[in-house]
Amino acid sequence: EDSLEMLEVEDDEEMKEMLKEELSEAKSNIAKIEQELKVLLIPKDPMDEKNVIVEIRAGAGGDEAALFAAELFRMYSKYAESKRWKIENGIGGFKECVFMVSGDHVYSRMKFESGVHRVQRVPETESGGRIHTSTVTVAIMPEAEEVDVEIDMNDVRIDVMRASGNGGQCVNTTDSAVRLTHNPTGIVIYSQ
Length: 192
Known about the structure:
The termini are far apart. By secondary structure, the chain is α+β, with helices and mostly antiparallel strands. It is built from 4 helices and 8 strands, in the order αβαββαβββαββ. The strands form 2 sheets. Strands 2-3-1-5-4 form a 5-stranded antiparallel β-sheet. A 3-stranded antiparallel β-sheet has the order 6-7-8. It is flat, with a radius of gyration of 32 Å.
């Protein structure tokens, strides 16, 4: 009996030590698990699975900004390629570039790229070795879905008038301007 009691005491000590180690390990995992839980509780953005239209425009910095815009386009192209996404409809030159990226969950990965990007460096075109700051704006827009819109022309007020501004004598004698007002929304369209 004495040896049995001694084994139980030793087992209890080993069990206590093992439980202390498990408790210590569990406490160290709390912060990690809490962070994962916070991420899982963030509501899913319904746009995340959409394709995107990317617009890159050179800002301040002249030719250097245009070079930076071209580098950003190449960077986004390589990123899309690494994700097996497709780039299409690229138009524009270095000053402005608009293209579409399609694939799985493109918007969820690209939506935070919108904004002004800035680079400070000595440009290749600089002979004096001075640092220049150049900016480029990037807009990431989810691909729009086609929507059928029906406008009841009874809700539209049409005003015809003489245009103003340059145009010679005809401006003052001919009704050459049209204004359409959609009464339910207050949207106004004007053309002259």
